[in-house]
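thought: fold this chain, then report.
action: predict
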Amino acid sequence: MAARPQPSIPKSRSLGSVANGSADSQGQWGRAWEVDWFSLASVLFLLLFAPFIVYFFIMACDQYSCSLTAPVLDLVTGRARLADIWAKTPSVTKEAALLYATWVTFQVALYSLLPDFCHKFLPGYLGGVQEGAVTPAGVVNKYQINGLQAWLVTHLLWATNAYLLSWFSPTIIFDHWIPLLWCANILGYAVSTFVMIKAYLFPTSAKDCKFSGNFFYNYMMGIEFNPRIGKWFDFKLFFNGRPGIVAWTLINLSFAAKQQELYGRVTNSMVLVNVLQAIYVLDFFWNETWYLKTMDICHDHFGWYLGWGDCVWLPYLYTLQGLYLVYHPVELATPHAVAILFLGLLGYYVFRMANHQKDLFRRTDGRCLIWGRKPRAIECSYMSADGHRHHSKLLVSGFWGVARHFNYTGDLMGSLAYCLACGGGHLLPYFYIIYMAVLLVHRCLRDEHRCAHKYGSDWDRYTAAVPYRLLPGVF
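observation:
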């Protein structure tokens, strides 16, 4: 399942290759150097409207019981004005500001000050100090992988409070949901602005910076590849995983607690959403080392796209199913609930096994079995920006022989299960599957555009061997 999918925009045509290699000309990994008119228009659109989109969904639940059409009809017919809607929107409060500041500070402390100990007693878990992929400039960064530990500590404290200490209500997140939105926006814009200034004045690696010549594109897509403070605080890894993804399951638990408070019970649909999304979150942190090799870490520079997206877009729009179920509790018939659970688990299995097959193939250099057979691969080579030529292999066995991005297919199956758990009463909870479909299709195209530059004729041989991207026989 896609690790962070924030709002996605098309890249410039001048994009080169990415994480696994480089273009024919050096320095073309990551985001574009130059910006065409379509990329610039996309950037401006998202900068202007992505915050409004988040506000619209949250406001619709708060004031219109999660209806997306009712506020539009009110405005069109004159029954309400924008000023009226805004006046009813809760503003930031001291309580929310203190809560959010405490939350972020706590996650920074867990990330920076508490070295991982989970890898010492959890068989199969790979944590502690790990190396990332080579950057465009040939740098190999080291990371302190301790996200699972942070998740466990955070949720242990949450459970201790809920069942023993009662320092605060388990509904605290829902109760301050909109005031917390303003706090998240403040952090998102603050960190995005800081890393842009940092890229000009004191970049972590000047050779891994990209200046497009356009202020808005630089702000959106980022200049620095891996901005850091000190040796270990990596902005990209922290904001991709913490605080948003650690908060994801806490947010859902708070929604479930609110449903219990309002209706005296937690519906099976709320349980399904909590369980299926918790599986995804735990998978993310269990495989955080593997995440160092993904597009988010290996390809994207750190700007507003990741900074604001991780602070606002992810925690507020990825949790819409739980929020919707607070306002519209849905009790599914047992066969429907079982079918949705099966779809979600099947999607997770496909997603996880596809990624496992690729990781196994890489770790063993192909000396393994996939589906009981020796794997087949396309031999290829690429050159990094430091002028060194590297050799690699593209897997064409197992799920990777079915489609070139079959892990995304599993991701979409799981995403659909989240939405189906909410029934068919409103469109709002289905935003997630629509967004994920657009995002992952675009990711396919981004990745393949870069790989075509990176591998050249070797990529042509690969696409001939595996002709479909997501759905065999369809796309």
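thought: worth noting. The first strand starts at residue 128 and ends at 134.
final: tokens above.
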